[in-house]
Write a structure and sequence with these properties.
single chain, alpha/beta, Rossmann fold, 6 helices, 6 strands, 17% strand
Length: 184
């Protein structure tokens, strides 16, 4: 059987709105982010997931909690679903810390690939384990842009064709064993 993973990016935070690096900092959703989470729950209500998992960072946990409350499901956290650790860049404006021709994650991948690789390894292992534990189910995974990019690359995508994932947008993948396939 296969497991369908609905990979959702967390709702908006003030740092997102202000274009500041977040990495693994604990930042709450703002009012727009909370409304985005409610809209995501409404969107998922027609074909709800069987289970909800999320990163243990506040913005992902809050998004998952709002969705879960609307759908009547519990939330399970997994720290392996965290965003990439960007160290001292956290809280700084994106424009100060990268070349203007690159998106922030592209900067990390191209300029400091070992940082992305650490995150990619733990996220893909977590997604494979989650899929195996929920074989045949639909699983909502509330996480961050970096982990969603890692899943995209694991599905055979490239940096060049990687879509931008907005707050509370969902990318769907199917996992069979260790094979990941994009469904959207």
């Amino acid at each position: 059987m296969a497991t369908t993973l609905l990979l959702a990016r967390h709702g908006q935070t003030d740092a997102n709105r202000e274009r500041r690096w977040q990495g693994q900092t604990q930042t709450p959703l703002n009012d727009v982010g909370r409304e985005q989470a409610r809209a995501l729950a409404h969107e998922l209500a027609a074909d709800p997931p069987d289970v909800i998992l999320c990163s243990d960072l506040d913005r992902a946990r809050e998004t998952a909690a709002i969705v879960a409350a609307e759908l009547g499901l519990p939330v399970h956290t997994d720290p392996r679903l965290r965003e990439v650790d960007i160290g001292s860049r956290a809280g700084r404006p994106v424009e100060e810390t990268h070349r203007s021709d690159l998106r922030p994650l592209d900067y990390v991948i191209q300029e400091e690939p070992w940082i992305f690789e650490e995150m990619r390894s733990r996220v893909i292992a977590a997604l494979e384990e989650i899929a195996a534990a929920h074989d045949g189910e639909r699983v909502l995974v509330v996480t961050h842009g970096g982990p969603i990019a890692a899943a995209w690359l694991a599905c055979g995508g490239s940096l060049a064709d990687r879509p931008t994932v907005g707050n509370c947008q969902v990318r769907t993948i199917r996992v069979e064993g260790s094979t990941m396939t994009r469904l959207d």
